[in-house]
Design brief:
By secondary structure, this protein is an alpha/beta fold. The protein has helices at about 1-40, 75-85, 95-100, 125-135, 145-155, 165-175, 205-225, 245-250, 290-295; strands at about 55, 55-60, 60-65, 70-75, 90, 110-120, 140-145, 180, 235, 255-260, 265, 275, 280. Strands 2, 5, 6, 7, 8 and 13 form a six-stranded parallel sheet that branches. Strands 9-10-12 form a three-stranded parallel sheet, with no helix packed on it. A two-stranded antiparallel ribbon has the order 1-11. α2 (about 75-85) runs parallel beside α4 (about 125-135) and α2 (about 75-85) crosses α9. It binds zinc ion.
Length: about 300
Amino acid sequence: MNMNFYECCNIRRFLRLLLLDAVIFAIFAASFFVGRTILTAAGGSSGSQEKGIPLPAVMYHSVREGTPAEYSVTPQQLEADLKELKRRGYTAVSAEELCLYAQGTGSLPEKPVLITFDDGFYNNLSEALPLLNKYDMCAVVSPVGAYCEVNAPLYPHDPDCSYLTWEDIRVLEASGRVEIGSHTYDMHSLTNGRRGCSKTDGESDEAYSAALTEDIAAMQMLVREQTGIQPIVFAYPFGAISPGNLPVLREQGILLTLTCREEINYITRDPDCLYGIGRFNRSGYYSAEEFADMLENGE
Ligand SMILES: [Zn+2]
């Protein structure tokens, strides 16, 4: 009887332990599968994640006749570039297409390229737009607000040196080939105490954030008033970036920022990949083939 009781207790104890093991195993198994599911849904599973779609970006400034320079190409050079990019199978993409792709709803062509023009020269309209039309390409033009407001009306429509007026910008925008970006309202300077829109030494975070917000918001409002569309692209003057830039730019509706880092970008389904897009400066000193090689090889 005692023996039976003892055996019985042992069996019950054994079954209890077995059940406990089974429960622990079930918890481990469940957490493993749930963890994997969450990782996969977030795109965080290792190994099979692609690096993203390679996107070279070009930074142009002025397009004018005369001697080529570091920040100036001739209309013939621009045409040779567009022809060469087409020949190599590139398709120009807009910032909006890049945003849609990064947000997970759009697609990109096999070899995308982003074409950009900084500073807002009038020749972006008189020289570049006809070529964008001819080669079926699009571009982002990022003017400086104060140049449109003050400089352009004083000396308009000289393809050599004028800046775009608001009327010109409306024509560019209405062409369907050009998106208007922001290159600040009035922070395109190296002599007013700060480098572009970067923070100065000794400036507090609060003071810097307030100064930047005032400038960026003014430009967003002006472009919206003048064209009906608010910029989603911001080009850092001189490529000068401070850690405090991004929160302000995000708050003002900027979805893509352009730097001067000469590197190829990789576009993923993460909208944050569009902040800090690298660009190759198209100096007038290269041939179209040499420059296209740089874009293709990343150096
Ligand atoms: Zn600039």
